[in-house]
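Tokens for Farnesyl pyrophosphate synthase 1. Go.
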Amino acid sequence: MANLNGTTSDLRTKFLEVYSVLKSELLNDSAFEWTDNSRRWVERMLDYNVPGGKLNRGLSVIDSYKLLKEGKELTEEEIFLASALGWCIEWLQAYFLVLDDIMDNSHTRRGQPCWFRVPKVGMIAANDGIILRNHIPRILKKHFRDKPYYVDLLDLFNEVEFQTASGQMIDLITTIEGEKDLSKYSLSLHRRIVQYKTAYYSFYIPVACALLMANENLDNHIDVKNILIDMGIYFQVQDDYLDCFGDPERIGKIGTDIEDFKCSWLVVKALELCNEEQKKILFDHYGKEDHADVAKIKALYNELNLQGVFEEYESRSHEKLTTSIKAHPSKAVQAVLKSFLGKIYKRQK
């Protein structure tokens, strides 16, 4: 492993090298008798689903750990271990996405067909999701078994997986076909779905991994968890906003929250701000596939000045998060939290 204290592209290259090492270990796991065929299948499945995203969650373990070490040069082992934990989060993400896409009957993901849509894959993808999930404890066992924080790592991944699956459940049961009822959508429901479905695994777990590696006790960092959860909620509100108002070229996807009857921050705000007449428009046209219906909802969003409402929310959230971060006693932890906030504030994609 070469020096990892260089530029972002170096970081990314080194991070991908660790992926190759972990993949090769998993494809030679002695707990299973491999054949060429099974090895080829798993390798293709991993390459298709694990390294394809932006890798933000994984890379932020290394970033956070570096900041916690306050400028000390990391050893090769530290770099490898932080990268391995980063990859465990990317594996967790891949597992969620493979199964999510089946549940949502989606077509594309990261600009290519969803894994279950690939010829000859189909419902084998459900079992592939289970395999992805089971790779995480294999990686942890191989590289962290002798570490004092091993049990804490296992607990952390198990708990976050449970929270994410439970968040997904609230989301799914809220949008059951034939029970579409806008009146049950509220800011508190939106917050609960986002907190559990997104914030824990996207914001909390990368920092929690870095804290454990730095021999910190997570019970002493409840405040850090709370700030990161708030950041995750702010991130999802941005996502909801960009789904409707973002440039599809920039965000890399065409938003369908309106058609999909999503409990989006925008629709919740619209319900809060609208008069009876506008409420009727929302109830009549939200969650319909037709372009004319979607256009009516977007026109209503503009009428209610939701872009302005969002900008106000964005600056209020930023201010609140900045104040919470400054109140943290540790400068190193402050640096980690500031780095996260800096990456997402006023993002366009």
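The two ends are 32 Å apart (CA to CA).
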